[in-house]
Automatic annotation (TrEMBL):
<protein>
    <submittedName>
        <fullName>ABC transporter ATP-binding protein</fullName>
    </submittedName>
</protein>
<keyword id="KW-0547">Nucleotide-binding</keyword>
<dbReference type="Pfam" id="PF00005">
    <property type="entry name" value="ABC_tran"/>
</dbReference>
<dbReference type="InterPro" id="IPR003593">
    <property type="entry name" value="AAA+_ATPase"/>
</dbReference>
<dbReference type="InterPro" id="IPR050763">
    <property type="entry name" value="ABC_transporter_ATP-binding"/>
</dbReference>
<keyword id="KW-0067">ATP-binding</keyword>
<dbReference type="InterPro" id="IPR003439">
    <property type="entry name" value="ABC_transporter-like_ATP-bd"/>
</dbReference>
<dbReference type="InterPro" id="IPR017871">
    <property type="entry name" value="ABC_transporter-like_CS"/>
</dbReference>
<keyword id="KW-0813">Transport</keyword>
<dbReference type="InterPro" id="IPR027417">
    <property type="entry name" value="P-loop_NTPase"/>
</dbReference>
<feature type="domain" description="ABC transporter">
    <location>
        <begin position="5"/>
        <end position="234"/>
    </location>
</feature>
<dbReference type="GO" id="GO:0005524">
    <property type="term" value="F:ATP binding"/>
</dbReference>
Length: 309
């Protein structure tokens, strides 16, 4: 699939000597939702700010829809919308005025119908004449999204877009994100709500200490790194796992009423059938089974831990 953003050998070193980014290579596909995950200080916001022209890179190249972000800044920036973490709107302006002004900054002609649709989609139409200073935090976040979309960008960066937002608004925002993706907009988001990335993203990128650890299709990542567990609810408490079963990846719960069997989803054989026979041979009866798979959060934590020296 064609890339809409191409990042090659990108580095950022600050005057203090801190290496925020270390030779980052990343291809972002046109029309996808890419979730960029990483702990605080990993380099997520620095990477976004460089692509958006807010921070200058130390070395490397970035192209947005074919335009070099340094040599062809204006054309590149026109393709990009950014919703930053911080709420940086003019508190004394009305909602409509600030969105209209943002569109004009990119040299776009007035389009009242487009702005009306945008504000209606974000449930802001009834607030169009309200001063931003009177709005709730969630409504201000919606205004930031409206500003970012006012010039009809093909690429949208959402840097922690639902931080401090209530559950209902978060749900509305993700419905809007899905609609944007369906219309062809490429979306790159950072989030601390990993369940959102698991639900929304097509691909997952993990960054740690300025380096991209992994970029993978979400489904493939879950299949490759996900573990499945079979939880057996025992009829009677078990004092200890028999030594004859020591070769199986079994754990006994603290209350001694559950056995947990962990297995690799990639294997040809799960070993479950053989395990159940062995349990029967040792007179270990169970009254129920329950299976589960590793969440994206568990996978993310294991990747970051594994990357640490």
């Amino acid at each position: 699939m064609q890339s809409i953003i191409s990042i090659q050998g990108l580095t950022k070193t600050y005057a203090s000597g801190f290496h925020a980014l270390k030779k980052v290579d990343l291809e972002i596909r046109r029309g996808e939702i890419l979730a960029l995950l990483g702990p605080n200080g990993a380099g997520k916001t620095t990477l976004i700010n460089i692509v958006c022209g807010i921070v200058n890179p130390t070395s490397g190249t970035v192209r947005a829809d074919g335009h070099d972000i340094v040599r062809d800044y204006r054309a590149a920036r026109t393709k990009i919308g950014l919703v930053p973490q911080e709420l940086t709107t003019d508190a004394f302006e009305s909602v409509m005025a600030t969105v209209r002004f943002s569109r004009g900054l990119f040299g776009k002609p007035p389009d009242a119908a487009l702005l009306e649709k945008l504000l209606r989609d974000l449930s802001l139409w009834d607030k169009r004449d309200s001063k931003i200073m009177t709005l709730s935090g969630g409504m201000k976040r919606r205004v930031m999204i409206a500003k970012a979309l006012s010039h009809e960008p093909q690429i949208l960066f959402l840097d922690e877009p639902t931080a401090g937002v209530d559950v209902e608004l978060r749900r509305d925002m993700w419905a809007m994100v899905r609609g944007l993706r369906e219309s062809g907009v490429t979306i790159i988001l950072t989030t601390h709500y990993i369940e959102e990335a698991e639900e929304m993203a097509d691909r997952i990128g993990v960054i740690n200490k300025g380096e991209i650890i992994l970029v993978e299709d979400k489904a493939v990542l879950m299949e490759k790194l996900g573990r499945k567990q079979l939880k057996l609810h025992l009829k009677s408490p078990l004092e200890a796992i028999p030594s004859e079963l020591s070769g199986y990846p079994l754990e006994l719960s603290a209350d001694k009423c559950e056995l947990v069997y962990t297995f690799d989803t990639r294997g040809d054989e799960t070993g479950i059938a053989q395990l159940l026979r062995k349990l029967g041979e040792h007179g270990i009866d169970f009254k129920g089974l329950e299976s589960s798979q590793s969440s994206l959060e568990e996978i993310f934590v294991s990747l970051v831990k594994g990357a640490r020296p």
